């Protein structure tokens, strides 16, 4: 017999004969890896089985380039693609892990190819063969019959019992009969049954009783099903199904990763541009499939990351970033070198310390040591993802100039990032149209979701085009995107395995992780569990991380690494700031930690903190009273800036709501003029917001010269709170929880060499948005309470320094965060404590309720983290929708907000126009040269307008457009206003979208 391990590397075209215990153990369609006629196959299985193998169809001719593709051809095509994935795509850590599962070095490749190829074996059933009339007739003529009324009854009683679930049943039964032990069968069959994106339970894959065996097939069907699996296994070099059995059960996270790679191989092998149908059994072979796969691979230009990476030398930091590492950066890289295994690293350092460079340098070390082939960098917002995209590309270019072109920017508005657009200018064909053959007889109109789901759709051109399709972005070797992309991998959604396959084999870097609230933290913890079990190195960055958050991060990751529901481990706290804490699971299954701290690269910055009291309206105040008080508050800000910026300088004004930002902007623009004031918030159109963000980063960035006497004021919302590299002389900010307040203060005096007016050489932060009250707790702006809750606002107000005092940054940061996020009730003045206790109870109740809501969408319900297989993973709770809006709402605990495309139509003019006045048509038809402008007019509505906006539809001329057919149009009149239910909204380029 041929040793399956020896099959790896054999030249199948040259091997003429193999002498083993029975010629047929290696026969495949007239070949013993050489030349044998089909009679040999007839002799082994019988002519009826051979005839059936020659007509079982995997792809109809309509979806296979005009010629039917036989089922065994598609299985071999997929296996051939899998071989290329193994050789040229999957990470070294993945290959090593599967080698261990398969029985040793070199054995994983064959098992991987078989796992990918066998996914469609369930098509060898009436459940699938009956769906295409032409193919069904040929199958019946070959002697494979079924009772159609019974099959119809079974299909009606269980609509989901199609070829994927049938395949799960077949593999479970046939592998068991081939001698596989139950624990190996139990993890393999869900990979087959779940390749359409959701994992059924064992009960689900049982054939519906109403089908009476007519969906699974009886009689000759059973022999054919056995033959399909056997001849497929033998063509891959195995002596039979028994020789395939693994020696170890992989972790559930590794199973999920493998499942994602199975789907990836299937999708590539379903591209009819490269895999035209083969309907002649004599033309089907692994060699032929390898030729087809090689052509597809070359055309798709799918590339891995850096492959086997050498551990960078000590001088690598200077080579990558052009400067020697600061003490904190050297500390972080040292920690990466000392870790005893893949684990979690938490970097805590002040704003401007260089955490990003430290994390990227550490990621390179961890990738080299533990076999990772790429990086995912997760940022809190789309706005912060864009500059990180640039920084990541520069870093990779310093490692290898070819790597920068392999970075994918992954968020919904990447089409408006100029650097990303430049990468796509010389691209090719459609990223999605070629995949229509993936599942032509699936359960939904678009089962693999290759169609466009959101406004803007997918880019049609660019490098590594395949990765631009829906749900495929994380599979690219280097990815920068919002943290949502990671959180989606922790949701019970279809094709979640693709997300895990994209994250596993990488180093994951998460910036500003403190920005995840209680609700989002449930998804973050679930994601860390899966990453820990998958042995993915994770680096977390924060300037203001509370001790309880640090403990929760490590508890989740280590519980996953240990495959346990709970894993109590006391995480040592760092004894300084900046600091690094690394934890991993040792071979003894005990946690080990590395903790370090050092001095910051620059001296503490004394920041004067002053409160600007703001009179606030009461619950029964009239609209006129509210407007008057807001105008007074805005005027106070104007007076303050007129005084402080008398000699020029820059100021950053951060408001906690768009309405407050728009209001103070109008006041300041009236005083200082358009040239000196900018406004930035999330309710500008995506095109306008991208332009404004770029302008603000340029005007207030570290490399922009500051001219004497020149004034510049930026009014912004929380967009400017984190990962927003601006350097302001003065800060005015609404009160926010202390960690976020410190983040905002981090935009002050960020760079030592920036020229500043004499009166602004001492950094000052003015806190607004609340009113201190004599003898009781303060009042807060209503919007602030709705966003942050009274509990943290009260505790933050309690630590604000008194008159004439300030904070020392970063020295005071850890202590301030510890105090506010601690439980010491004495932090609050005695007169506040009653209100503080009530606010704490309210916050606890709210947190518990939000956590429970989040758990409904988590990939794994509580109590099921120790399960050994993926069976039933998608059942037992709520399932988040597959669209971007539904997913975003699920992981961010927001009402499902709606995006609309703004167009204008004058009442006297039937033609629709863009915001810039360019004509469309009476139906809204969009010419190619106007498309970007129309898509750039997309804006997200406030959640309170969602219900009213659900009735909006695309313009008539958009229905057939691939990018616009799912977009809702909001038609503005000549005054740029529109009515939405009971609300009136307006839009202009200075203020953005407003509710009137």
Architecture blueprint of SSEs:
Blueprint: H1 38-45, H2 47-53, E1 57-59, E2 69-70, H3 71-88, H4 92-102, H5 108-117, H6 126-129, H7 133-141, H8 148-157, H9 163-177, H10 182-193, H11 220-235, H12 252-269, H13 286-300, H14 316-321, H15 327-338, E3 343-348, H16 355-370, E4 375-379, H17 382-399, E5 407-410, H18 418-424, E6 478-482, H19 484-488, H20 496-503, E7 507-510, H21 518-533, E8 538-542, H22 547-561, E9 579-585, E10 591-597, E11 605-611, H23 623-644, E12 649-654, H24 658-672, E13 677-680, H25 686-699, E14 711-716, E15 730-734, H26 738-745, E16 764-768, E17 770-773, E18 776-780, H27 782-788, H28 790-799, E19 806-809, H29 813-821, H30 833-855, H31 884-892, E20 899-904, H32 928-935, E21 938-940, H33 946-949, E22 968-972, E23 977-980, E24 983-988, E25 992-995
Parallel strand pairs: 3-8, 4-6, 4-7, 5-6, 7-8, 11-16, 12-14, 12-15, 13-14, 15-16, 20-22
Antiparallel strand pairs: 1-2, 3-9, 9-10, 11-19, 17-18, 20-21, 23-24, 24-25
Helix pairs in contact: 1-2, 2-11, 3-5, 3-12, 3-13, 4-5, 5-12, 9-10, 10-12, 12-20, 15-16, 21-22, 21-30, 23-24, 27-28, 28-29, 28-30
List the strand order in the largest sheet. 5-6-4-7-8-3-9-10
Amino-to-carboxy terminus distance: 80 Å
Q: Which secondary-structure class do the elements indicate?
A: alpha/beta
For the biggest sheet, the summary is: 8 strands, mixed
Flag low-confidence runs: 1-37, 427-463
* Count, helices: 33
């Amino acid at each position: 017999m041929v040793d399956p391990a020896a099959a790896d590397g054999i030249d199948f075209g040259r091997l003429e004969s193999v002498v083993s215990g029975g010629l047929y153990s290696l026969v495949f369609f007239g070949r013993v890896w050489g030349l044998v006629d089909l009679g040999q196959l007839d002799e082994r299985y019988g002519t009826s089985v051979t005839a059936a193998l020659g007509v079982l169809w995997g792809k109809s001719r309509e979806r296979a380039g005009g010629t039917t593709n036989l089922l065994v051809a598609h299985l071999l095509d997929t296996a051939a693609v899998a071989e290329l994935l193994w050789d040229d795509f999957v990470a070294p850590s993945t290959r090593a892990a599967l080698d261990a599962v398969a029985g040793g070095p070199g054995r994983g490749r064959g098992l991987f190819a078989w796992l990918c190829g066998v996914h469609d074996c369930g098509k060898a059933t009436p459940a699938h063969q009956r769906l295409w009339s032409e193919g069904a007739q040929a199958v019946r003529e070959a002697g494979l019959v079924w009772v159609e009324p019974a099959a119809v009854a079974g299909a009606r009683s269980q609509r989901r019992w199609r070829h994927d679930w049938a395949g799960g049943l077949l593999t479970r039964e046939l592998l068991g009969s081939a001698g596989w032990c139950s624990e190996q069968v139990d993890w393999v069959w869900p990979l087959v049954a779940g390749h359409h994106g959701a994992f059924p339970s064992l009960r689900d894959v049982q054939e519906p009783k109403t089908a009476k065996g007519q969906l699974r097939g009886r009689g000759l069907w059973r022999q054919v099903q056995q033959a399909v699996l056997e001849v497929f296994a033998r063509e891959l070099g195995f002596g039979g199904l028994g020789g395939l059995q693994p020696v170890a059960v992989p972790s559930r996270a590794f199973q999920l990763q493998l499942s994602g790679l199975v789907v990836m191989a299937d999708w590539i092998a379903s591209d009819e541009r490269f895999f035209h149908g083969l309907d002649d059994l004599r033309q089907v072979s692994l060699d032929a499939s390898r030729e087809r796969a090689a052509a597809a691979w070359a055309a798709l230009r799918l590339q891995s990351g850096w492959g086997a990476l050498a551990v960078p030398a000590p001088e690598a930091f200077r080579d990558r970033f052009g400067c020697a590492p600061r003490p904190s950066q050297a500390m972080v890289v040292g920690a990466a070198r000392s870790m005893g295994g893949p684990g979690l690293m938490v970097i805590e350092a002040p704003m401007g310390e260089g955490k990003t460079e430290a994390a990227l340098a550490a990621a390179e070390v961890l990738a080299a040591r533990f076999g990772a082939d790429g990086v995912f960098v997760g940022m809190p917002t789309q706005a912060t993802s864009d500059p990180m995209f640039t920084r990541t590309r520069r870093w990779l270019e310093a490692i290898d100039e070819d790597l920068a072109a392999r970075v994918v920017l992954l968020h919904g508005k990447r089409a408006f990032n100029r650097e990303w657009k430049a990468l796509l200018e010389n691209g090719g064909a459609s990223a999605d149209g070629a995949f229509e053959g993936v599942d032509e007889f699936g359960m939904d109109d678009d089962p693999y979701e290759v169609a466009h789901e959101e406004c803007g759709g997918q880019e049609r051109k660019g490098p590594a085009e395949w990765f631009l399709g829906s749900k495929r972005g994380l599979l690219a070797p280097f990815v920068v995107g919002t943290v949502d992309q990671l959180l989606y991998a922790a949701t019970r959604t279809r094709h979640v395995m693709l997300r895990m396959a994209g994250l596993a084999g990488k180093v994951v870097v998460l910036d500003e992780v403190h920005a995840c609230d209680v609700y989002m933290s449930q998804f973050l913890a679930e994601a860390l569990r899966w990453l820990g079990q998958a042995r993915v190195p994770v680096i977390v960055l924060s300037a203001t991380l509370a001790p309880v958050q640090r403990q929760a991060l490590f508890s989740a990751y280590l519980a996953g690494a240990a495959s346990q529901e709970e894993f109590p481990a006391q995480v040592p706290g760092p004894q300084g700031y900046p600091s690094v804490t690394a934890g991993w699971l040792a071979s003894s299954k005990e946690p080990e930690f590395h903790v370090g701290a050092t001095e910051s690269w620059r001296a503490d910055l004394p920041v004067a903190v002053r409160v600007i009291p703001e009179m606030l309206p009461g619950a029964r105040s009239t609209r006129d009273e509210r407007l008057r008080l807001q105008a007074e508050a805005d005027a106070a800000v104007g007076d303050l800036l007129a005084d402080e910026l008398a000699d020029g300088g820059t100021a950053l004004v951060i408001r906690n709501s768009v309405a407050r930002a728009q209001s103070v902007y109008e006041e300041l623009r009236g005083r200082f003029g358009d040239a000196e004031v900018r406004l930035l918030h999330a309710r500008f159109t995506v095109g306008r917001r991208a332009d404004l963000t770029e302008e603000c980063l340029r005007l207030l960035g570290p490399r922009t010269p500051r001219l004497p006497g020149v004034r510049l004021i930026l009014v912004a919302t929380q967009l400017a709170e984190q990962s927003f590299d601006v350097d302001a002389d003065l800060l005015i900010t609404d009160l926010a929880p202390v960690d976020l307040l410190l983040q905002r203060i981090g935009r002050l005096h960020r760079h030592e060499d920036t020229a500043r007016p004499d009166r602004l050489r001492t950094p000052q932060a003015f806190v607004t948005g609340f009113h201190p009250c004599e003898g009781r707790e303060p009042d807060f702006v209503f919007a602030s309470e709705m966003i942050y809750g009274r509990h943290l606002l009260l505790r933050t107000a309690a630590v604000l320094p008194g008159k004439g005092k300030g904070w020392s940054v970063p020295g005071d940061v850890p202590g301030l965060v510890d105090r506010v996020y601690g439980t010491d009730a004495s932090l609050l003045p005695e007169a506040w404590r009653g209100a503080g206790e009530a606010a704490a109870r309210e916050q606890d109740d709210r947190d518990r309720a939000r956590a429970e809501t989040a758990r409904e969408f988590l990939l794994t319900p509580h109590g099921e983290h120790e399960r050994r297989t993926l069976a039933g993973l998608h059942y037992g709770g709520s399932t988040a929708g597959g669209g971007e809006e539904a997913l975003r709402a699920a992981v961010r605990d927001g009402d499902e907000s709606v995006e609309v495309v703004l167009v204008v139509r004058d009442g006297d003019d039937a033609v629709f126009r863009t915001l810039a006045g360019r004509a469309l048509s009476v139906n809204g038809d969009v010419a190619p040269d106007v498309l970007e402008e129309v898509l750039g007019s997309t804006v997200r509505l406030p959640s309170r307008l969602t219900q009213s906006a659900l009735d909006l539809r695309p313009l008539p001329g958009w229905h057939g457009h691939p990018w616009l057919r799912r977009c809702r149009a909001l038609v503005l009149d000549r005054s740029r206003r529109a009515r939405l239910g009971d609300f009136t909204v307006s839009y202009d380029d200075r203020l953005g979208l407003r509710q009137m």
